[in-house]
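lol forgot to send this yesterday, sorry. struct tokens for the thing we talked abt
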């Protein structure tokens, strides 16, 4: 049975079991839709490479559009990863963003959207990487699903234990500052995977564009769980 269909079917039947990943009021809060593709000429390579300038750009866009939070990224072909050699590859650089980013202030709380357990966690402490990262494991009527939370505060990892049970809606982390989150403007990288493929504490959040169709098979759309409607998004 197709795992994407299984996931959609489970979520449609158990809407009451899904909690917000970050707190927002859909009647009041708006999300600004960030564009990090080559069509966004307002964001130069120099701005992206300089974390302070990049952070200023993010904050200015949110303020200009009167949005408390920003969003974007699932399967977006981005041009911002030249900021770090982490994404370099001799044959083809990684440019395809595999999760959804939620841009907000450092310290913002992050919650588990589904019941599960701690699969793994670690501090991916490299320039341009996730920084502190948590991965949860969920059993959805026999379907295995993993959720990844990247760019967290280091304090978010201090009391975790592999295998520890997590309830839907439970606070699991806070967003980290640039000096601890992989040197990015404060935001959450939220990603789903059906199969961890033997990895722990880390799973690629950016892939090769040429491998998009294969990657989608294991990485479903996070908005199935985020449930952020188009009506709350400002482009």
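and heres what i got for the seq, position by position
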């Amino acid at each position: 049975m197709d795992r994407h269909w299984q996931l959609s079917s489970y979520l449609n039947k158990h809407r009451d079991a899904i909690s917000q990943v970050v707190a927002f009021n859909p009647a009041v809060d708006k999300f600004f839709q960030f564009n990090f593709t080559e069509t966004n000429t307002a964001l130069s390579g120099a701005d992206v490479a300089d974390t302070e300038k990049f952070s200023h750009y993010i904050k200015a866009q949110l303020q200009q559009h009167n949005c408390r939070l920003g969003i974007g990224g699932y399967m977006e072909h981005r041009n911002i990863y030249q900021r770090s050699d982490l994404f370099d590859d001799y044959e083809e650089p990684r440019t395809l963003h595999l999760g959804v980013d939620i841009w907000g202030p450092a310290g913002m709380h992050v919650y588990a959207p589904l019941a599960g357990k701690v699969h793994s966690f670690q501090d991916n402490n490299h320039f341009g990487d996730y920084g502190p990262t948590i991965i949860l494991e969920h059993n959805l009527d026999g379907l295995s699903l993993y959720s990844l939370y990247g760019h967290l505060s280091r304090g978010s990892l201090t009391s975790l234990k592999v295998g520890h049970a997590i309830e839907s809606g439970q606070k699991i982390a806070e967003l980290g500052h640039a000096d601890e989150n992989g040197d990015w403007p404060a935001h959450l990288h939220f990603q789903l995977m059906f199969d961890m493929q033997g990895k722990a504490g880390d799973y690629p959040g950016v892939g090769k564009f040429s491998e998009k169709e294969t990657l989608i098979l294991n990485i479903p759309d996070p908005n199935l769980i985020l449930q952020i409607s188009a009506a709350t998004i400002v482009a």
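The radius of gyration is 17 Å. anyway ping me if u want another try
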